[in-house]
Amino acid sequence: MVRRRQLLEQQLAAVLPPDPALVLVTDLDGTLLGGSRSWRQRVYGWLERSREQVLHVFCTGRDLASIARLLSEDADHGLVAPHLVIGDVGCTVACGQSLEPLPLAVEPIEARWQGKPERLLPLLAGVPGLSPQPLTADRRLAYYYDPDTFVPELVPVLEAHGVDCLFSDNRYLDVLPAGVNKGSTLLELLALLEVDRTRVVTAGDTLNDLAMFETGLAGVMVGNAEPALLEHAARLPQTYTAKAHGCEGIVEGLRHFGFGDLLTGL
Ligand SMILES: [Mg+2]
Fold first, then answer.
1. What DSSP string runs through 3-18?
2. How far is the CA of 51 from the centre of ligand 1 (A)?
3. Smaller CB count within 10 Å for the chain: N or C?
4. Would you place residue 136 in the very low, low, confident or very high pLDDT band (cuts 50, 70, 90)?
């Protein structure tokens, strides 16, 4: 383990700032990709200028191929690659620049996923109200679901096989290895990197971000968060509910948590 940890450190040493003042962990759709165009451009420019002070982590339901497309498409808008990526709703961890998965972080998740698709896919085939998402999800199964026709009794049947069913944004169903989500993978990653938790701020907008807010790390629910997520805010004392949407909401939250000094030029 020590040897493998050294390998991870070597792999990341060239890409991570040595002593960041802030570790900013952002969901993408509705959060870092949300808000007005002008605010998005301002925040993307600030992230690019602040790479030595701000260690930026994407924490998203997207898979690596989708993130790669986003970074190439959005280059015009100034969104630069983060330092690190948590993708597939917590089931993938990768270097932000190369999008190469980090084995030390991914292999424990892979081990928990072994044998699951073979058992689950027959149970999910032809289920009313479900359709597979057109992506190559790793270590999870990704579906669209119709809240009006999907039969919730299927959930305990699936979860008996050692998975969690995660519903989000009234349209996404992710079937994940039990106990793996954005929050659990983020905590594992922070431990691997020996990050000071008081420097971490997370931000998100839908139910698949709830596990990040439940870590107890400082969190920002952006103003456009889905109502089903906002219902949880009252029991999460480390979570701030922003008024502003998307990128502007992230900035509002960073000021709330005392990181205003870092927001130069915004
Ligand atoms: Mg989102």
1. HHHHHHHHHHHTTS-S
2. 23
3. N
4. confident
Q: What is the pTM of this model?
A: 0.94
Ordered strands of the 239-241 beta sheet: 92-95, 84-87, 54-59, 22-26, 200-204, 218-221, 239-241
Residue given tokens 């983020």 in the structure block: 186
In residues, how long is the chain?
266
**Ligand 1 centre distance from Cα of residue 7 (Å):** 32
- Give one word for 82, left, alpha or beta, with left for phi > 0 and alpha for psi -120 to 50: beta
Nearest alpha-carbon partner for 28 in 76, 64, 1, 4: 64
Q: Report residue 205 as tokens.
A: 């907008």
Mean pLDDT of 189-194: 93
Residue with tokens 């629910």: 221
d(CA 29, ligand 1 centre) in Å: 4
DSSP string, 152-185: TTHHHHHHTTSEEEEEETTTEEEEEETT-SHHHH
CA of 4 to the centre of ligand 1 (A): 33
The pLDDT value recorded for residue 186 is: 98
Tokens at residue 23, please? 């570790």
Domains of the chain: 2-109+180-262 (3.40.50.1000), 113-177 (3.90.1070.10)
